[in-house]
Amino acid sequence: MEGNKNAVIQTALALWATLRLMFRHPLAKAGLAILIVFTVMAVFAPLIAPYHHDEIISDSSGRWLSYQKPAAKFWLGTTDMGRGIFSQIVYGARTAFMIGLLAALMVMVIGTVVGLVSGYFGGWIDQIIMRFVDFVYGIPFLPFAMVLVTVLGGSRWNVIIAISVLLWRETCRVVRSQVLSLKERPFVEVARSAGAGDLRIIFVHLAPNIYPISLLYGVFAVGWAILTEAGLSFLGFGDPNSCSWGKMLQMAYLSQALSQGVWWWIFPPGIAIVLIVMSTYFISQGIEEVVNPKLRNW
Amino acid sequence: MNVLRFFSRRLFHSIFVFLALLTFIFFIFRLMPGDPTALFISPEMAADAIQEIQKTFGLDRPLYIQYFLYVINVCRGNFGISYYFFEPASRVVFEHLWNTLVLTITAMCLSYLVGVLVGTLLAWKRGTLFELGGMVSVLILRSAPVFWVGLIFLYIFAFKLHIFPGGSMAETGEFYGGFLEMVLSWEFLHHLVLPLVSMMCYFSGLPVLLTRSSILEVIKEDYVEMARAKGIGARRVMFRHVTRTAILPVVTAFATAIAYAFEGSVLIEVVFSWPGIGRLMVMSMLGNDYPVAQFAFMILAAMMILMNLLADFLYAYLDPRVVVQ
Fold first, then answer.
1. Confidence check on the interface: ipTM exceeds 0.90, yes or no
2. Chain A interface mutation, best of B142, B146, B151, highest count of A Cβ atoms under 10 Å
């Protein structure tokens, strides 16, 4: 009992130390700040957004307020249908978060588990898994996501599946190569002679050493997933019912916003994507400090 | 001997992967919703006329027979008839493939050229404000969706400043006589600039980061210090001694990056109405023209496998230790 309690405290302290080390990096701090802003946006979207993302805003005589320039009333202006762009950006943060976090979680779990199993057991298990990973590497990412979304239907969940079903390949390869060197270390030998089974060695002894690197690839996956969702939506393969930044750009492109000079419809969604993806890169710089201590020169 | 075994094993793996992909492509495209014959068949048609059309495309047979025929046809180089163009799918795809190759390969070569130079510069100026600024701008460009960068360029340079055309490869109604004539014409280059630069914005990020970190590794080596100690100037040491060694990982990354460039070009081609294979695939997916979509997908996959194989070979050639393992 006492030992368990100590172990929990120890783990919590170790995690805290890792986080502190991670966010000591100035870029990681900036990334965290950006991420917090978007989190607040996503969580409190209905409170922050003045209108619903689908609401058509009209004046007292019922005329649509189309193509309003950014002003005090409409922070970022309105679209061709008189929808508030600021409100769409705020609601779009929800989609971005959902896609980014869930896809990254799936990528991390699949990639880490498959990589651990493949690297630990070696032999024919490793051979089969690695040939399968080769196969997955041969599939073009975006075209495949287009095909899969067409087959499964364009909902947000299917977009998440289409993204994560290929993206785990990188995590898997990196985790596997880490395991290959880790499993030769004495502590694995000690655990085995103490009677630990394969599963216990994999998930209790090896996995904790893998977490920082799989977290790193998970953070990259957040950015990738958000970019891919934007691309899919832009091409017309997204969820038709949800409001995403990529879909905003698609609507702007299709309704000739470029030639009509409606710049306030094109810039904000892209800037939102840049900021959120950039924040993941910044945070990943912090994780890299943890993974690779040689970099700690700040 | 070892080298030969390494190469033949990698080649065998690639062929295996490609065969697995062929099977996978067949089944996933049969799962597509929407009847591909909807283009020609209307509900008012007589039942036997409908059957006749389905027979023409071989859609009346059971799935395993269709698969068997598919394998035979693929071996013969027959990839079906486009439902939309009424031409062999392979001809339609290959016509578009050249346009993609011109765009992506030019973009990648220039990206890596610029990337290596900028990366070297950033490593050289390490620890300065210049480096921080450079790194942050690279990260910003890598975070920007490539199609959005394209949209911004279109907005500024085509619709505001009217310097560059707003898409496509030629003025409306104009056609090029042949491939060479097209590539060498002034008008083509004029159309190429915006999609090219948009792609470069994204793809030059990786070589910048790779070159920089690789140089920072190499710079610590003894032979670099030796060269400096011998009194060789900083510039000469940097470009003659350091960059040469440091460039190895960038070269292998180049081959892999070309594979990814083909799929990245999908979005750019759509934004700029560039008649390439990626845009063709998007249009044929949206228009249920599955033979074309399927073959375009197959070609994209084949390119990826080929480029990954090439990267492996290149890596083995540049770093022979790989073969021994």
1. no
2. B151
